[in-house]
Model the fold of this input.
Amino acid sequence: MVAKIAVSELENLIVAYKEKFDRNNFFQNLLLDNLLLVDIHNRSKKLHITNNVRRAILLFEMDAESEPIAAEMLSGLFTVQNGDYLTGVDENSVILIKSLDEQDGYEAIEEAAKTAVDMLNMEAMVKVRGSFGTIVSELKDLSRSYKEARMAMDVGRIFYASKRVISYNELGIGRLIYQLPPSLCKMFIKEIFGEGEMEEFDQEILTTISTFFDNNLNVSETARQLFVHRNTLVYRIEKLLKTTGLDIRTFDDAMTLKIALMVQAYMKAMENR
Done:
């Protein structure tokens, strides 16, 4: 009787392991668009994966050495019992297929992503960034949510480096610049700054520009936050005007410089890549 029970338990473990492996393989091929619609329907039914459930892709990126630790900790935070699945398509990221209730929106997804990032950063000392795509209601659309999460990760790395978690819905103008061809970017820089290349600004002037933009071009509030005299700030702005020909106290010039800095960051990222 003991032997029969042991055999039964081992068979159950083998079935569970095979099912887990098959599910992982299914989700990997699904996210990479390697499955036909009929295959998605048939295999999901065989693996007991419900088709019409609201889901979104959360992507967590870290270095390759930290990936196994991150995957293990995330598997404890997001469980299959809750309808969540973890998988991966490369050694630098972990992909979470997050199941959502009807009342869950993007705030719930962002909260889950921030919780996971905080846990990995604090408990495992793993430097990780998170991103997520839009909510979909069918399995066949998960590949789109994955592509959006991947784009959000790439765009966030270039334009919003200070953010720990970035949403595809919040990429703003960064998404537009990311999809521009390099030749058009070079043409834009040439049109704004002439034949010479755009000057590399030091950290002080970059901080000044960023704080000035964050404060809606308010000189007094910017000077207060930078802990400098108002005349010092005005001097920096005048110096920038002589260098670039742009007076960032006016909206049009401020917008032009903002876009130019983003285009420059994008071109530099493309060159490094």
Remarks:
- The chain has a mean pLDDT of 89.
